[in-house]
């Protein structure tokens, strides 16, 4: 299976060519919906267990400051729909991006997360009635990936081509 190299913007590429930092199976794993990766008991479309304990721990750590102020925050922000994971790479890491929102309030209250597969760290951006709040101290290199993704949230990533 060969990877297609696509330059998306600002030097981002699809999982790299040849020596891919993320195997095709891993790529498919992270393309699961957010709730499948962060909550036990879900399987992906192929019937495989999708839950990822490290992904869940990273999300729990990311929202801990918000949960300390509102113990129901995690339940609320994950109560609505989420996107499937968008997997991409740049020279610094391999990232998985999800959008999730509170049920019936997606236009006003949502979160964008970016999970670094290598470091097992997650950063995010909370969008609360037009106000943006970075979460997890995103670095200067990563924050633009969150904000730029708002305008173009449907990137063609982790694309494979049969030999």
TrEMBL record:
SUPFAM superfamilies: Inhibitor of vertebrate lysozyme, Ivy. It comes from the Bacteria. The keyword Signal applies. Residues 1-19 form the signal peptide. Keywords: Signal. Pfam families: Ivy (PF08816). This is Inhibitor of lysozyme (Ivy). It comes from Paludibacterium purpuratum.
């Amino acid at each position: 299976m060969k990877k297609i190299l696509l330059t998306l913007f600002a030097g981002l590429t699809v999982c790299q060519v040849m020596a891919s930092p993320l195997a095709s199976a891993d790529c498919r794993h992270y393309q699961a919906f957010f709730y499948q990766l962060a909550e036990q008991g879900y399987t992906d479309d192929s019937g495989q267990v999708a839950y990822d304990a490290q992904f869940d721990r990273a999300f729990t750590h990311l929202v801990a400051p918000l949960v300390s102020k509102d113990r129901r925050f995690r339940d609320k922000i994950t109560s609505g729909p989420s996107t499937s994971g968008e997997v991409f790479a740049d020279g610094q890491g391999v990232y998985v991006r999800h959008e999730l929102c509170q049920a019936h309030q997606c236009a006003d209250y949502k979160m964008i997360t970016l999970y670094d597969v290598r470091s097992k760290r997650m950063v995010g951006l909370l969008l609360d009635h037009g106000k943006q709040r970075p979460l997890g101290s995103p670095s200067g290199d990563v924050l633009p990936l969150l904000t730029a993704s708002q305008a173009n949230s449907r990137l063609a990533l982790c694309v494979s081509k049969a030999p």
